[in-house]
DNA sequence: GTCTATATGAGGATAGAC
DNA sequence: GTCTATCCTCATATAGAC
């Protein structure tokens, strides 16, 4: 039961991740120092190395955690049905999942170049997996005859870019609710691949 | 006629901009040092300060030059006509202009946070100008009754995000020509705002 | 215009005391 | 687990010689 005085591993760990996420999203990985992160956590820089072997691992862990959560959440959401239903579900899921995670999404897209080659490959694999989810839906819809597009791969990338772009201008407490935004985007998505 | 030996201002200047553009796009502004840039130019770091007052100005000049070229080029291209013609022209222009400028576009989107507040405001103004070009077209199309969308601002941002996203996956010598890509995207754009 | 040399500071990471 | 102190490297920017 007794816990050593000064032992805060269950507090400092999450605080470290949270501070790193916020600071990296705001200033960029290269521009943020371990000292800055430590200051936000409330410890000295040296103490951070009890929680991460180095700065690179810190970035990698943030990105992998984000991608894992994304894939797991989509796995739960994906429930079959017609291609049209599945595409609507994907559209709304993507918006609902990404909107409250502005920092994570920003980092996942902007800091790829700061990953070591091995770490980059791993994150890239997870991203491909997610893209494959949408690609499957579009392929199914084409087979059903409810979707039409010239190129499957381009349609996939174009839709993801369109939906993710929302994060660059969305601000909480804006003039539209998330539900309204979902519906507006669903209208654009649906028509863009309509027969 | 005579030129002092060792005077290379007309060579080193452009070389500096070119090296900075490439390195910043690859590694990020914060991660690139003046020494790295100088090495690529072929001079010592101190010599760069004959061409730029500081690192921040270097970034700002790159971004402003890019936005100026973009706005000037679109100004030439924009020739009136029906909203449908104008939207097709915008779509093809955006792709044709941005595709060969991967580094510039990347920097323009990724390094905004590394601009000083004043510089940020100026670049942001130019970006808004460009967005307003598309917004005008969509508004005109709605008035003509040839376009339909729920929200003008979202439609504008969604289309720009979709088109610009192309830069993240396009590789020269891929399986599709630029002309083919233009047509494929135009199909997606046209349908997404169709009545 | 470019060089070398340097001022001045900050960076990541580690060692050893508590 | 955290602290202080420190190593070592690298950064931007400037000064003055050529």
Characterize the structure shown.
The structure is a homodimer of 195-residue chains. Chain A has 2 domains: 1-52, Homeodomain-like (Arc Repressor Mutant, subunit A); 54-193, Tetracycline Repressor, domain 2, CATH 1.10.357. Chain A contains 9 helices and no strands. Chain A has helices at 9-27, 34-41, 55-77, 83-98, 102-110, 117-144, 152-164, 166-169, 178-192. Chain A starts with 8 loop residues before the first helix and ends with a helix. The A-B interface holds A 26-31, 110, 113-114, 149-151, 154-155, 157-162, 164-166, 168-169, 176, 181, 183-185, 187-189, 191-194 and B 26-31, 110, 113-114, 149-151, 154-155, 157-162, 164-166, 168-169, 176, 181, 183-185, 187-189, 191-194. Chain A binds a DNA duplex (18 and 18 nucleotides) through loops.
Question: Which characteristics define this entry?
Answer:
homodimer; 195 residues; mainly alpha; Arc Repressor Mutant, subunit A; 2 domains; 9 helices; 69% helix; disordered N terminus; DNA-binding
Task: Give a count of the beta strands of chain A, DSSP E runs of length 2 or more.
Answer: 0
Reading the helices and strands of chain A in chain order gives: HHHHHHHHH
Continuous helix count of chain A: 9
Shape of chain A: elongated
CATH architecture of the largest domain in chain A: Orthogonal Bundle
The share of residues in helices of chain A is 55-70%
CATH topology tier name of the largest domain in chain A: Tetracycline Repressor, domain 2
Please identify the structural class of chain A as seen in this structure. mainly alpha
The chain pair with the largest interface is:
A-B, 37 and 37 residues
- The quaternary structure here is homodimer
Q: How many angstroms does the end-to-end distance of chain A come to? A: 65 Å
Given as residue ranges, the uncertain stretches of chain A (5+ residues, pLDDT < 50) are: 1-5
What's the pLDDT, averaged over the residues of chain A? 95
Number of separate structural domains of chain A: 2
Query: Roughly what fraction of the amino acids of chain A lie in strands?
Result: under 5%
Question: Which value, in Å, is the CA radius of gyration of chain A?
Answer: 20 Å
CATH superfamily of the largest domain in chain A: Tetracycline Repressor, domain 2
Q: Mind describing the biggest β-sheet of chain A?
A: none
CATH class of the largest domain in chain A: Mainly Alpha
